Amino acid sequence: MDKNQTEAVTEFVLAGFSQSQSTEAGLFGLFLFFYVCTWLGNVLIMLTVASDSHLNSSPMYFLLGNLSFLDLCYSTVTTPKLLADFLDNAKHISYNQCIVQLFFLHFVGAAEMFLLTVMAYDRYVAICRPLHYMTIMSRGLCCVLIVACWTGGFVHSTVQTILTIRLPFCGPNHVDNFFCDVPPVIKLACSDTFVIELLMVSNSGLISTSSFVVLVSSYATILIRIRSKEGRRKALSTCGSHLMVVTLFFGPCIFIYARPFSSFSVDKMVSVLYNVITPMLNPLIYTLRNKEVKSAMRKLWDRSGLARKKQEM
């Protein structure tokens, strides 16, 4: 038997975006800009919510602060390695590091899906039962729901990881993506993965698709329950940012995970969208049309003393 077919794979090689060093150097600058913007935007939202007593006491903004934290974690799972690989022609990643990246990718990603679903429920209660909103969405319930999101993400990711590490890897080691994910990794296994693929598609695909259906149903119910045009206009204004985030996050995830593990030429670009771009855009989407958040940010800026120093210069 051939040696390459009997030795276990100890490292994988990640696919780059280009074979040209100059192109990769340009992409390094672009993605570094995206990553810095992701950190600045999401940290600013977390600081704003934590420093403003009104926002911090509101279930909506408490959940938004947690979403920003998840966005930071999600982007950090893949982007630092991607940036390093832009400057490294080899683009190697050890087997153990690959599995760890895969685990945290699904851990944080699933937790964010569940949190977005919780945020949809929060908007439903706020719009359809406004008089009981603070009673229903108490801080205790919000904390329980946050823990449930993280727990659900952990269980989902554990299942995905166990199914992956049980496969034998003894031959090809070129992962057709810029990070380790279940679909491109299990294609490299040295055994029949048909059953494993079905289990994983039913797992990841079911979570993303069912969560998306619940979210859309929630907003449809809100619009049906509200009779007046003015009320619907306000509801759309309130939920519009959330719907945009949901579309940007769930659309690519459903495309990647809710189908058989066959490769398409656009898979890599779709992965960039939900791994790098969406975590960067979320702070902008939630703040540009939100007067309360913008007002709290101005107060935070004034309290920081930076505005005063700028005027004195």
Topology:
Layout: H1 3-6, E1 11-14, H2 21-51, H3 53-57, H4 59-86, E2 92-94, H5 95-128, H6 133-136, H7 139-165, E3 174-175, H8 182-186, H9 194-225, H10 229-257, H11 267-287, H12 291-304, H13 306-312
Parallel strand pairs: 1-3
Antiparallel strand pairs: 1-2
Helix pairs in contact: 2-4, 2-11, 2-12, 4-5, 4-11, 5-7, 5-9, 5-10, 7-9, 9-10, 10-11
Question: If you had to describe this structure to a student in words, what would you say it looks like?
Answer:
34% of the residues are buried. Strands 2-1-3 form a three-stranded mixed sheet. Helix 2 runs antiparallel to helix 4, helix 2 runs parallel beside helix 11 and helix 9 (194-225) runs antiparallel to helix 10 (229-257). It has helices at 3-6, 21-51, 53-57, 59-86, 95-128, 133-136, 139-165, 182-186, 194-225, 229-257, 267-287, 291-304, 306-312, and strands at 11-14, 92-94, 174-175. It contains 13 helices and three strands; from the N terminus they run H-E-H-H-H-E-H-H-H-E-H-H-H-H-H-H.
Q: Which features would summarize this protein structure in a list?
A:
3 strands, three-stranded mixed beta sheet, mainly alpha, 3% strand
Short summary:
Its main location: membrane. 77% of the residues lie in helices and 3% in strands. It has 313 residues and is mainly α.
Q: What is the number of E strands?
A: 3
Low-confidence stretches: 1-5
Largest sheet: 3 strands, mixed
What class would the helix/strand composition place it in?
mainly alpha
**Which term fits the overall shape?**
globular
Please indicate the count of domains: 1
Strand content: under 5%
H/E series, N to C? HEHHHEHHHEHHHHHH
The CATH C-level class name: Mainly Alpha
Q: Order the strands across the largest sheet as they lie in space.
A: 2-1-3
- Assign the CATH architecture: Up-down Bundle
Mean pLDDT: 84
CATH topology: Rhopdopsin 7-helix transmembrane proteins
CATH superfamily: Rhodopsin 7-helix transmembrane proteins
Rg, alpha carbons: 22 Å
